[in-house]
Amino acid sequence: MHVLITGAAGFIGQLLAKELLNDPSYTLVLTDINEPPIPADVKYPQNARTVTADLLKGANTMVDKSLDAVYAFHGIMSSGSEANFDLGMAVNVDATRNLLDALRATCPGVRVVYSSSQAVYGQPLPEVVDDSVIPTPQSSYGAEKIICETLINEYTRRSFINGFTLRFPTISVRPGRPTAAASSFLSGMIREPLNGEECLIPVEDRSFKSWLCSPKTLVYNLVLILSLSADSLPPHIRQINVPGICVTVQEMMDALAKVGGEGKLAFLKEKEDPTLRPILDSWPTRFDNTQAISLGFRRDSSFEQAVRDYQPNR
């Protein structure tokens, strides 16, 4: 299977590429605005090539008729989109439209997996969000994502592509450095203490809830989407809420203490951030994932296990 990954220099792009390059049946094109690395320690690095490209200037250099699937992971994250509206609209919306039009022209009907977010929702929300809840985003990032979800639905309805939209929970624990995402602390408060570094938590309420998914579970679900039948969803409703688990700040701190030791809690500092808090409060914290589970998606067993899965990879 020949697969294109945009935004391939990012965490999720690298995570998926590493998984696929351990299977000889996949060949990959990895593309980003800066040259993405081929993940280290994979069995078949020769099955990947890299393309440096700016989707705002077009997608022809990376799209060809041999493609079987495309993962669209490019974009500006939540707080970055809020800080710079024009950049967020350009990278998150215009670049996606350019990609979809190139695919429509060159390889019509190709499977496209678009990465969306729980940020498409905004308050007021029911205690548990199900597929009937209408997205009303309260951030530029969420608005940009819902625009692209509509494009995926329409291009699929018209048979230009075979699209699926995955609304990701917050992914934790991410390796690497903090990002421009409003949710970045939800990895940092585990990752940084385990590395002997401080992390600032931008909420002082330890009962604050988040909807989380581990990298290990995410990559399983990303690969699963390649095997779903095209008619597993209606042609004009292609979004799937990816399963997660609801975890409080206190429960995350408890997991850190159990895995890393009580001493790691000293690296956590709590200070309310009035800029980030409205964004964080707009996101839902519980979902009914009946649809996704019925399609074969998995959810994590516990956040403590997610921390233990991360620890050996520090």
TrEMBL record:
KW NADP (keyword) present: yes
Pfam families hit by this protein: Epimerase
Record InterPro entries: DenD, Epimerase_deHydtase, NAD(P)-bd_dom_sf
Keyword terms: Carbohydrate metabolism, NADP
Domain NAD-dependent epimerase/dehydratase span(s) in chain numbering: 3-201
Presence of keyword NADP: yes
Name the record gives this protein: NAD-dependent epimerase/dehydratase domain-containing protein
Species classification: Eukaryota, Fungi, Dikarya, Ascomycota, Pezizomycotina
